[in-house]
Each structure stands twice: as C-alpha cells, then as structure tokens.
Design a protein that fits this description.
The protein is mainly α. It contains four helices and no strands.
Length: 91
C-alpha cells in the first residue's frame, strides 16, 4: 500500500509513486473496459493517499500542489486507467 508520508522539503509526487499508481490501475483497466464498470477502487486508492486533495491549499487541509503536480498525476493515472484519469482531471 502506498503512502504519502513526507516532510515539507519532499516532493508531493515521486516518480515511484506515480509509477506504482499507473501499474496498479493498469491491472484492472481491461476489466473496467470490458464490463463498463466504474473504477471505484481507484478513487478509494487516490483518497487513501490524499491525492484527491492534491491542489487544495495546505491551510484547508490539502497537499498544496500546483498545476504541474496535478498534470503529472493525471498523466500517470490516465496512462494506467483512462477513465480514472479523465474523471480525476474533471474534478
């Protein structure tokens, strides 16, 4: 299970984290495509890692990331499972 424990000097998103999310989501992508199911588990995973709050300012409990971090996350997630990437960027 991935975690986002970090210090203030650590990057919000590491290449390793993005790679692991991409691989994890890719493992179920074909099944979601085949049966038209919603990737609920992927969003649960993103929420557990607090990544749904990536661009929320720290003073409001988010991670305080910017547009470049958001773009990196959406690209990695979308490369693994396109529906999750699309919905992530829409929200």
């Amino acid at each position: 299970m991935l975690s986002l424990s970090r210090t203030s000097s650590d990057p919000i998103l590491t290449d390793q984290l993005l790679s692991e999310l991409r691989q994890e989501f890719a493992a179920t992508a074909a099944q979601h495509d085949a049966d038209g199911s919603f990737p609920f588990a992927n969003f649960k995973r993103l929420a557990e890692a607090r990544l749904l709050a990536l661009t929320v300012p720290k003073r409001f409990g988010g991670l305080g990331g910017g547009i470049s971090e958001a773009a990196r996350l959406v690209a990695a997630v979308g490369a693994g499972e396109a529906t999750t990437g699309l919905l992530l960027q829409m929200n």
